[in-house]
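Sync notes, pocket subgroup
Present: LS, DG
LS reminded everyone that the earlier model was apo-only. Rerun requested with FE2/S2 (inorganic) cluster included. Inputs:
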Amino acid sequence: MGSLQETNPSVWVATTPASSYRPLPGPLDTDAVVVGAGIVGLTAAILLQQRGRRVVVVEAGRVASGTTGYTTAKLSALHGLIYDELAQAYGDAVALKYADANLAGIAQVAELVDHYDIACDLQTRPAFTYTCDPEMVDTVRAEVAAARRISLPVSFTTDTDLPFPVDGAIRLDDQAQFHPRKYCLGLAAAVAGGDGSVYERTRALSVDEDDHGRCRVVTDRGTVTADHVIEATQLPFSDKGGFFARTYPVRSYVLGVRVAGAPPQGMYLAAGSPSRSVRSAPVEGGELVLVGGEGHKVGQDDDTARRYRALEDWARGHFSVEAVDYRWSAQDYMPVDRLPFVGPLAPGSPRVLVATGFQKWGMSNGSAAAIMLVDRITGVDNPWAEVFDSNRLNVRQSVSDVVKENADVVKRFIGDRLRTATDRSVDELALGHAAVLTIGTERVAAYRDDAGTVHAVSPVCTHLGCTVTWNTAELTWDCPCHGSRFDCDGHVVQGPAVRDLAPRDEAG
Ligand code: FES
């Protein structure tokens, strides 16, 4: 969701043209509506089209303007440390299906790139999970053993092309990296060039399903009726399934830096803390090193700008950095039981389908999710569907985490409402600063921009009513409960909220 972000555009956004699909012109009827033009939505749309379905894609912002445009864009089945944990929690069979789904997701990307001849810098690369902590080596070895048990061809090594020594690493060959926005623009063109349609600047507001097997997606530009709906909006916005309570939002940060010498060619993720991600990215005139990390729960850091400083310090301590060309951040949803949710929105909504909780691995998980959803719509058995079942109840592992995450949300909901800055007035806001103030009898989220103009909106998130907090790095109001984000004038940048923050009079 959202428009192309201008405060800190990613290298993917900055190096591609703004797409210009027109908004939905009015009411339409079709076979399937896909809400969201990121990797899940567009992959599902093109696969549905290949299976003879008429598809309409509606996107609130622009193609790949959400997290797909702000990822590190690794296509890998090596997800840090996950297989030992999955195997211990659910058994090797579940770990195997998770790996198989992600490998199939990667293969799906390669197939679509080839079929539609999409120039998106797809490069085969080895993936590594490494540690520089001797005490983590046994954990890394355990992950190697778990992955090998399910036939994932990993190896233990201390040999990497990072410019610093590591104490141990897991290596998985034949993974890939790419330019996600070029890829999505190629998919969108293929959808629009076939029997499908892509509409941008069209915000879906509600979805319902009648008793006769028809669905209605109401947007701010008209209503689309269809046999099936896919909510590919990262977190479903019509959340009858309560996914906001089974996931939690995390923001993380990326720098695109130029370094002296050749960048590492592997794709890396550090095990343990601090978590750091490294990969190269081809750009005009050379290659960047993308350095990522500093993840934290959305809306729960008073000084997000320091995250960029921490990443830059780390980059300069480990590489010969010549320049920092890009900085951006992304938002991901973490499932409380370590498995994404893919399938019906709720038990009583079999035709409205969702995919969420990709735990920062949305390129491979998202592509796999699209395959699963399209299989479901077209009546094809899918071997991974049960493991990713959106309505599963893995209470064994997750109930305490669900309780913990929701207790955290309740704390934010109540505590933030009580906490107000009654002793400050708008006049005291310095240039470039923001705060939630009490003006008269009203609470106001106020931001004074660098030109001195005050932007005042309601601090009450339009999703479920938590109080937003200011994000100093991206200049947005972020909701600590389920991750909705709004610009300084209250416009929705990111769901699950679909309505803007109400404007407020700065004078009260
Ligand atoms: Fe749910 Fe704000 S995102 S209350």
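DG: The pocket of FE2/S2 (inorganic) cluster is lined by residues 244, 461, 463-466, 479, 481-484, 496-497 (CB under 6 Å).
LS: The radius of gyration is 22 Å.
Action: DG to write up.
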